[in-house]
Amino acid sequence: MAKRIDVSDLNIYYGSFLAVQDVTVSIEPRSVTALIGPSGCGKSTFLRSINRMHEVLPGARVEGKVIMDGQDLYGPGVDPVDVRRQIGMVFQRPNPFPTMSIYDNVAAGLRLNNKKISKSDLDGLVERSLRGANLWTEVKDRLGRPASGLSGGQQQRLCIARAIAVEPDVLLMDEPASALDPISTLAIEDLMTELKERFTIVIVTHNMQQAARVSEQTGFFNIAGAGQPGRLIEFNPTEKIFSNPDQKATEDYISGRFG
Amino acid sequence: MVILAGVAAFLVVEAIPALRAPAEDVPGGEGLTAYIGPLLFGTLLAAVIALVVATPLAVAIALFITQYAPRRIASALGYLVDLLAAIPSIVYGFWGIYWLAPRLVPLFRWLEENLGFVPLFAGPTSATGRTMFTAGLVLAIMILPIISALTREVFRQVPTLHREAALALGATRWEMIRLAVLPYGRSGIVGGAMLGLGRALGETLAIALVLSVSGGITFNLISSGNPSTIAANIALQFPESSGIAVNTLIASGLVLFVITFAVNMLARYVVNRRSEFSGAN
Predict the structure, then answer these.
(1) CATH number of the domain encompassing residue A228
(2) pTM score, two decimals?
(3) Chain A closest CA to B148's CA: distance in Å?
(4) A254 vs chain B: nearest CA distance in angstroms?
(5) Is residue A259 assigned to a domain?
(6) Do B183 and A99 touch (CB under 8 A)?
(7) Is the CB of residue B235 less than 8 Å away from at least one CB of chain A?
(8) Quick check: A78 contacting B, CB < 8 Å?
(9) What is the ipTM of this complex?
(10) All domains of chain B, ordered by start, with CATH?
(11) How many domains are there within chain A?
(12) Which end of chain A is more exposed for a tag (fewer CB within 10 A), N or C?
């Protein structure tokens, strides 16, 4: 079930270094929200703070609120493990578990959530997830083969299947197509358009055409200089961002007149 | 390679007289197989005990150091474990006799009383504690740093990508270890265990000191009747041997050489095979 996310006054730190400053944004359910901006501007950091993945690094912490349908994700007593079960993530480089079969990769999250799941239920969910990721027809005859034998694009769709198998509320994608060829990229973009019927999707991308093609809302992050924190400069409907942005910096960035 | 071949050739040449000798000339008077058999059995038994005890412990230590401990504690602990490898084996032997063995006697008594129906713990309990079990434990501590060092390296190399894949699915730290770290490190664990096994098979002094030897093949781990091991037997018997007895000892050495060689080859094979499913593609 797709949920909305409200972020208010979010500051993200690595130790004493303020990486992202003062982000306030509302992310709509059943839509694709794209985050664009130059490298190092904090958009990936912001994305990872939504499902508390940035905490994996020692010293990382946040101030401010991230609310998902009324539930404070950083509230006291909230286990980051539970947050990650509700908010799935797909990474820049495809990262299927290399020692596991295709089937086991998709089943991994399901088995974590439900230890006693029956084989037939599992079969059904694995098939549904692989169909959901437009991968089923390509792999249905070799589910027992190692996942590392797939192409990069297939591996990335396998990772998407793995992420959606546990029915998360939100799907975060950190440059999901930047390591892929144009055909595979297209497959991923088509997939996003289908998946937004069921999930809230947030995607970080360096590819502005991609943001324009797939997203309803776009946020532009920027950084004032080295050592400065990243900020959300503008957040608007994608059409507006790419035709008539409010901020001069946004226009400079998307038209290529930048730094 | 040349040295290796030279050693092998020496062993074979010197062992031939023992292989040819009539059965009654071999020490013990019942032929070479009857002489080496219990030694070989003792060698393998002690090594297997050591491996069974040390491997899970070493893996646990490596996991703690690489996945759980804060950096400062981790490096201190790793250093301590590595230091275990620097202790001379004779020291382990003395420690085994004077410290460990007496303290294990109550445990052996308990095992005999409560688990006496298992052939391993049938007893009667050795009064000195200088049993196969004790020897195996001493060996376990000696091979612990080898196994732990290797598995630690492998665990440390688990790509962040795989660990994050597991964490992003909502895995707890332990689930992440099971999903990403252990599968990736599996062959490293096997390789480390094999190297440890090689060391345990060839260990001489600690066993020679700790183990109270009498009798032949037995699975009874806590009694005073234990088969010796090949290496310990050579060390103990060699000064008093002459003629065909020396050749017999060398023949037993040849057997040990072949076994440790095979174990090391196997270890190397297993460790190298890791590259195939490292996920580097």
Answers:
(1) 3.40.50.300
(2) 0.80
(3) 22
(4) 30
(5) no
(6) yes
(7) no
(8) no
(9) 0.86
(10) 31-275 (1.10.3720.10)
(11) 1
(12) C
